[in-house]
Write a structure and sequence with these properties.
Structural class: alpha+beta
Radius of gyration: 21 Å
Largest sheet: 5 strands, antiparallel
Number of helices: 15
Distance between the termini: 52 Å
Strand order of the largest sheet: 1-2-3-7-6
Bound molecules: 5-S-methyl-5-thio-alpha-D-ribofuranose, magnesium ion
Helix content: 40-55%
Number of strands: 12
Order of helices and strands: HHEEEEEHEEEHHHHHHEEEEHHHHHH
Shape: globular
Strand content: 5-15%
Length: 406
């Protein structure tokens, strides 16, 4: 794998397109009227191109380092291959919820994909206090199709094992193992909170039961190769368009994908709903906070219903009986709450925070951050008595509300 390859710029993307027949079929490189670099994530360059006929194209290029930090943190650009292959595999299983991939260039680590300029990043829309009914359900359906279709339930045993091998993604998994499961509890020098939240971060790290639960969750993440999961399914990895009637939901950015526990993807969603609720609560919008928290059940119920719908198609019903289905769903729901705890806490304490909280003024942010940390600690433990999303959401709502500042 080379780390010496030309990085695209707004000035070179048209020539890049012109050199490739697949791309010239999608957009006219001689009539480009607009090129923008819009990468606002932590890792990559993202260009949107538009031609005079109104056709659009996205080029996403993986850099050989973490963009958020710089060249001092090298990172394999092979993640672009993983993302392209996962997007294609997931789209086969759930065509309406993934963008079209035009090509993957293995020499320059570029993915050319469908332009989603008529969509908006869901986190951005949520931060503007918009409501998108049905998106949480779409995401539950997406996770169910992937959970079934890339697993031993939906694939033949040999094919599934080969897929596990192709999807191995050690460097990006390492980021998650460090940033999500370890560093909130063992600071590696990358943690940061407001001075007013320092006692909250200390309490989190000193909570022996939380550390125990996170150790277990980390072990699950590292060992339980259930399905080809997305691996970073927060609200910034989802693009949305329209109201309920003309809704479109697209899942993007699966470079952290690998064979892992299904609850990790659902938990990422739950965590980000909690974070969106914390923002709403901090802004004094309790109706909206309740709506954000209703998304936990929205995603879970849609996941469960879709998984039950597909279950009769399983490959081996001899011992994968209906009892297996009930055990599996109970396991995934318990995991979901545990991973939600991990994902919520990391966005408050560790590197790579959530703009939902970070863009609040400090007075409001203090209570929102504290509420999310307490909610994470509650989710990690209370789930063993009940992992019902309605009950958990109610408890999260109480914690957010009672820790509100200003
Ligand atoms: C160094 S990468 C930091 C974070 O960005 C991604 O969105 C993942 O969540 C990762 O943990
Ligand atoms: Mg991302």
């Amino acid at each position: 794998m080379s780390t010496e390859y030309e990085h695209l710029t707004v000035d070179t993307v048209a020539a890049y397109v012109a050199a490739n027949d697949v791309l010239t079929a999608a957009i006219d490189p001689t009539a480009i009227v607009k090129v923008e670099e819009v990468g606002d994530g932590n890792l990559n360059l993202v260009f949107i191109l538009r031609d005079s006929a109104g056709r659009g194209l996205v080029l996403k290029q993986a850099l050989p380092y973490v963009r958020l930090v710089g060249r001092s943190w090298p990172m394999t650009p092979e993640r672009a291959r993983i993302e392209a292959e996962t997007t294609i595999a997931h789209r086969r299983l759930d065509p309406s919820h993934l963008p079209r991939i035009h090509l993957f260039d293995p020499e320059r680590y570029v993915i050319a994909m469908e332009d989603l300029s008529d969509h908006v990043v869901w986190r951005t829309a949520l931060n503007r206090s918009e409501r998108q009914d049905g998106v949480a359900e779409d995401l539950g359906i997406y996770v169910a199709n992937v959970a079934f279709g890339t697993s031993v339930f939906g694939m033949d045993a040999e094919g599934e094992k080969l897929a596990v091998g192709r999807a191995i993604n050690p460097e990006l998994c390492r980021i998650t193992e460090d940033l999500v499961f370890t560093e909130p509890y063992v600071d590696a020098g990358r943690n940061r909170v407001l001075p007013a939240n320092e006692p909250d971060a200390r309490e989190l790290a000193n909570d022996a039961e939380m550390v125990r639960q996170m150790g277990w969750a980390k072990w699950q993440f590292m060992t339980q190769a259930e399905a080809l999961i997305h691996g970073d399914l927060h609200t910034g990895s989802v693009m949305v368009r329209g109201d309920a009637a003309s809704r479109s939901t697209k899942v993007i950015d699966s470079e952290f994908s690998f064979y892992g526990p299904v609850g990790f993807d659902l938990g990422a969603l739950w965590a980000n709903y909690v974070i969106a609720a914390a923002r709403a609560c901090a802004l004094g919008d309790s109706d909206r906070a309740a709506w954000c928290l209703s998304l936990l059940a929205g995603t879970w119920d849609a996941f469960e219903a879709e998984f039950r719908r597909i279950w009769p198609q399983r490959r081996d019903p001899r011992v994968f009986t209906d009892r297996t289905l009930e055990d599996y769903l109970a396991k995934v729901r318990l995991d979901t709450a545990g991973f939600a705890a991990a994902k919520a806490a990391r966005r408050i304490v560790g590197l790579a925070k959530a703009s939902d909280i970070e863009t609040l003024d400090e007075g409001r942010r203090e209570g929102a951050a504290r509420g999310v940390l307490l909610a994470a600690r509650m989710l990690a433990t209370v789930r063993h008595s009940s992992s019902d999303p309605v009950q958990l959401a109610a408890r999260v709502g109480d914690l957010l509300d009672s820790n509100r500042t200003r």
